[in-house]
Amino acid sequence: MKKSAIYLRVSTTDQDYERQEVELKLFAESRGYEIGYIFEEKKSGVLDMDTREELTKMRQLTRADVECIFVWDITRLSRKAFDFISLVNEFSNKGICIHFKDKDIKTLDDDGKMNAMASIYLYMLGVFAQMDAENLKAKFKSGKENALRKGQSYTSNAPFGYDLKNKHLYVNESEAEFVKLAFELYHDGKDTQYIADVFNSRKVPLKSCKTDIIWVKGTIYQILKNTVYYGKGKLANIVNNASKEKKIRYFDAPAIIEKGLFDNVQQQFNLNKSRSDKGRLEPALIRGLLYCGLCNKPYVFANNNKKRVYRDSDMRSNINQRLGCKNGQLNVKMGDEAVWKSLKHIYEYEQYVKKTGEEKQRCKVLIANNNDSQVELNKMLNKLKKEIERINVAYIRGRFSEDEHVKYRSRVENDISRLEKRLNDLMAENANLERYITTEYNPSKFETPNLTLEEKKLICNDLIKSILIFSDGPLVKFLYVTLKNGLVYYIGFYSKKDYFVLINETNDVNFNPQAKIGSVRTLKDSPAFSLQTETTEYDIKKFIDLFDTEDNRMYMNKID
Questions:
Q1: CATH assignment of 2-136?
Q2: Is it true that domain 162-273 has CATH number 3.40.50.960?
Q3: pTM of the predicted model as reported, rounded to 2 decimal places
């Protein structure tokens, strides 16, 4: 009997080939052919022929393998006219006939020559098949648009943190917890590799549920860039294939995080790309903590006319990214000393003691989580070390060349080094957390005469989350200081030497971070501020006039 092959194709995984296979076998056998090969494919016919694996295998057949290939109809072979014609010519040149069952059309006559009328007919059918595919695509697109208007999901694949039910997105609480964690960690200064290691150490399952792959920087980056997490799913369609022009639209979805957190993370991405502080080697206490209250860009160290100052990094930005922010600069000595002295009093303040107790409880939870992560990291390290042993054994047995051995071993050793660094970081973090929990904070430590600037800076970094600066003219400055324990206080400067501190006990003042210093005059009647007293020779009336108040709910100090 003559040898032949059968090519079966359906468009989706929900469909099957049973009907095609049964009828094509009977059809081939009735014409005296023996079935030697069966190629089954679940791919769309509009895809390029080079992307279809089973079709690619079939194209490797020669006349010595088969004389004929049986296909259900022309749309099974391809729905693209160019690919269809190319395939017909490719097999015809090999002397292999393609026989389409539905219309009983063959590409070659019994003598092995192309049938001219059949070829013309097939070419026309190929064009019509492509037109039909394009019509179906247009109908599908129209149906999708109609579904979107009715509030259905913008995507058929639920992002991590969501489930897709009845064509609508719903929050998956167990996954959403880690989405929030990813945004919070990056906002706190951790990079995407750090977050990936955290996810892997905690065995966070991937959305695909695959167990042979792990979280990597790219998947974390996709999460941090996905707008759906603040409630706006992003859909991008290419409207011009030549220019790759895209049409971008947003659709409502259940939010997992606040938009403010999402925007802050995007700003952090930009800062990580462009931040460049030329004065990083100069000693400066609050460098890295100070940000502009108007444009949110970091303040950097600079020497202005031989004077050490902090100034807005906006002026160093690329001209296309510059905002033209006019927030003023701050003298380094004045700012550092005021912040340091205010921290001394914050330690003495009873509200700090209360907040510290709450922070210690949080540290205990973090230590427990870190301990769990260390266990998982050790398991991962053990697997990698065993992988090193397997690579060495394979090399000894001659399975690898020396270059391959070095290459494979180096790759695994890099992973081991990275995980060991993460493990050391966790151990160091736990040591710091333990020290935080067990340390009794004594205000007298601030008066240690031998405390270096570097030691003071470490204390500031441990205590302060961020500092926003606002200016009102060349002399008047205002710092909005947020501590990591949640306490907020304000430092005001009226001259090059004098400053005051306002302590917010209840954090119930609605402070507008986009406003200039003049707007804080409205704080004068707030009961949220208490008086911190200390004798000073400075005329307090200047500060009272500045804030239009007659009371003394302010702590005054004078920098020597």
A1: 3.40.50.1390
A2: no
A3: 0.39
